[in-house]
Amino acid sequence: MKNKLTLANIIVCAVLLVMAVLTIVGVCVNYISLSITLLGSTATDGYALGNEMLTGADGYGAMAAFAYITMALAILTLILYVVYKLFDIKVLKLVTLGAAALLVICAVVALILAFTFGGGEGSDWASYSVTPAVGAWLLFVGGILGGITGVTGALKC
Known about the structure:
Layout: H1 7-28, E1 30-38, E2 41-48, H2 52-55, H3 60-87, H4 91-116, E3 120-122, E4 126-132, H5 134-156
Antiparallel strand pairs: 1-2, 1-4, 3-4
Helix pairs in contact: 1-3, 1-5, 3-4, 3-5, 4-5
């Protein structure tokens, strides 16, 4: 039985934990930013997932679903990696790789959906635009780095 408490395993676990926390924070803070320009004056406000201003909008369901799936996959990747390293269950290596790969894919799709949500329209005197806010970016960074760390940790450590 090999030593499971190596520096590399501790670093991978720490990074996975930080990335899981990033995705959780990303879901909880402002996810979408709405900017409205009226007669030359601009007002901007942010909305978290689940806000009643967003829930009825077209595309909200897919955007929120991928955000929550990304968060769940980040937590799942962390748990699978820890269990795989502690108990040396070989089949969990493949499951961890799969979860980490899906995490990267879902993070990219979540950010794309945040960019395409709402769009922007207007006339000469009034317009609006919807863009990803800090939550979408935190979710994206946590998902990408968590997925890459999970894949690397499962293959190399």
